[in-house]
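Project standup — Tuesday

K.O.: blocked on the structure for the chain from last sprint. Re-posting the sequence here as requested.
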Amino acid sequence: MTKPAEARRAFGEDRLDSGAPGWIWLHCPVPKTWLPRRTRTLTSAEYPGTAVEWQGEIFEVVHSEPQADGAVRYRLAPWPEAHAIRRMERYDAESEAARGAERLDRRERLFRRRMAFVLAPFAGLLPGEVQSRMAAEYEAPALLMTLSSAVPLFFLGGMLVVYCVARAVAGSAPVWLLFLSAYVFGESIARIASVVLAGEPMGSLPVAVAYEIWRQSGASSAKKTRRVVPVSETDVFDRFLLLEPLLSLLDPAEQEQLAERFWFDPIRWGKITAVVLLIVGGLEAMASLATLALGYLGFRDGAWLVAGAFLVYEQIGRWRILAAGSPAGSVLGALVRPLARPLLAER
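H.V.: unblocked you, prediction finished:
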């Protein structure tokens, strides 16, 4: 026996409304996924509305009326026995609580996604793995975050390089600014290439190092509060993600060892680092040559000239080896090896 409408109870923020006798009107401040009955037409058959199980009885959503404030009034009637139930919706305290939690989670995810878009030029500087996690959690495109931070730095670094070269011609180029602008320009090219050619996000190395220091400091603080800390592969994995671009500077045998233990791609990262170092070395050599042409070459400028020319020569040789499909190291690998030692250790 069907209960009278006044004997029924609404859940959550819903309430019962008065209406025509024989009908149950449910006012819902937030629309539900319920679909009303579709009447028969000349081209389509009648299709029943959503079946709703409410306090032990089954009702059909006969009609829905959107309200001006975004709410919806649903008219429910006892389920007609002539129709088969294809999908059942529950209406009780538990289901309404679940719907509310889902709406809250959806709003939070939408807010985080919008914030990720707003902060994309800064979030794109974080390590690529962090950007990928943000993309999975907040549905924010990681590649867009990388590009939004790399493209402005690409133009800024390029303009600073032109400015420094012009100052070098005049004999008053600050070497530190030239080195910094060349690095920013070269790294931006590598990050853009990672997105365009490999389809993977890539952060900025200084920011990645700062992020890892911050993460490790937080981890060390947490370890101080625990007497026993389980050993895991997390630290080794995070170290690999941080050093991944620089690992292509190691010896070929060490790169092959890393390729077996991780998913390290020595050819891809080798080409990226070769391009970056070629640009940096070429710009340094050009600035030193411009200073030499004006007769202002000192010991420091001569050292930069030799270092830049060597980097250019080495990267051309590395590119030939990489183009043949083999990993190629660099003398700069000696600076990376102490940091990469835990990755190369036997486990």
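K.O.: great, moving the ticket to review. The chain has two domains: 5-91, 154-330. Residues 142-169 form the longest helix (28 residues).
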